[in-house]
TrEMBL record:
UniProt signal peptide: none
Gene Ontology molecular function, alphabetical: hydro-lyase activity
Catalytic activity as recorded in UniProt: chorismate = 3-[(1-carboxyvinyl)-oxy]benzoate + H2O
Family statement: Belongs to the MqnA/MqnD family. MqnA subfamily.
Gene3D superfamilies: Periplasmic binding protein-like II
Keywords of the record: Lyase, Menaquinone biosynthesis
Functional summary from the UniProt entry: Catalyzes the dehydration of chorismate into 3-[(1-carboxyvinyl)oxy]benzoate, a step in the biosynthesis of menaquinone (MK, vitamin K2).
Descriptive protein name: Chorismate dehydratase
Gene that produces this protein: mqnA
Keyword match Lyase: yes
Enzyme Commission (EC) number: 4.2.1.151
GO BP annotations listed: menaquinone biosynthetic process
Biological or metabolic pathway of the protein: Quinol/quinone metabolism; menaquinone biosynthesis
Length: 247
């Protein structure tokens, strides 16, 4: 059998999953690559991967997609790694630079700006001064490890899944394990078992990760992230897709 090609996110949020996969015999059956989320999505769209931990917003660009795991990159509220960083209140922001590595959070920012904050700043994709603009009314979306330690550095900081909870009362799913073609059921079962094994060994993983003075990795991996793809999270996922379609 050909190996199943899997693209996973190269951020710390995915390390519990990698720990589980690398500690399982499933490694012999897969070809694993680590990519930034926007590239995970593109690989699935271009059929360069069979399964990806892809931004859920990117499912809208797939002719066929199916969820192949009971786990995800999700949260019950604040996630502490997906933000709009700003020098002014969101109501006064004139320009928002989007994160080139993101698909879900850029869309989450758009959904919240339109429906929750009811503001209409100009959106910039691929800004040359991304994340470094000194303009007082320019803000930026940022995700992943690049945000660690930055929450203290800006006067206005919006944790986007915390804002989504205020808006909808729901948890949030940033990325899920999605296939672009049918995957054998026995493989899916073995895959899920490996992911569960990784999640159950987060304390061992934390001992291996370099600690940071400016970011609480244990709180992040044990509490802020919530990896179970529950019915409530699926409800949030489909609601989010509806909001994106209406943008
Ligand atoms: C919580 C996060 O979730 C992510 C956000 C994504 C996005 O915005 O497209 C995609 C994958 C996840 O890595 C994060 O990256 O910090």
């Amino acid at each position: 059998m050909n190996k199943i090609r899997i693209s996973a996110v190269s951020y710390t949020n995915t390390k519990p999953f990698l720990y589980g996969l690398q500690d399982s015999a499933i490694m012999d059956k897969i070809e694993l690559s680590l990519d930034m989320p926007s590239d995970c999505a593109q690989k699935l769209i271009d059929d360069k991967a069979d399964i990806g931990l892809i931004p859920v917003a990117a499912t809208l660009s797939l002719p066929h997609w199916e969820i192949v795991s009971n786990y995800c990159i999700g949260t019950l509220g604040a996630v502490n790694s997906v933000f709009i960083f700003s020098n002014c209140d969101i109501k006064d922001v004139k320009t928002v630079q989007l994160d080139p590595q993101s698909r879900s959070s850029n869309n989450l920012a758009k959904v919240l700006m339109k429906n929750f904050w009811q503001v209409q700043p100009e959106l910039i994709v691929g800004a040359e001064d991304y994340s470094t603009s000194t303009d007082p009314n320019t803000a930026f979306v940022q995700i992943g490890d690049r945000t660690f330690g930055k929450a203290e550095a800006y006067p206005f900081v919006y944790d986007l899944s915390a804002e989504w909870l205020k808006f909808t009362g729901l948890p949030f799913v940033f990325a899920a394990w999605i296939a672009n073609k049918p995957i054998p059921a026995d493989f899916m079962q073995e895959f899920d078992n490996a992911l569960r094994h990784g999640l159950a060994h987060r304390h061992e993983l934390l001992k291996e990760l370099p600690q940071r003075a400016d970011f609480d990795l244990e709180d992040y991996l044990m509490h802020k992230l919530d990896f179970d793809l529950t019915e409530e999270k699926k409800k949030a996922l489909y609601l989010f897709l509806d909001y994106i379609k209406a943008l």
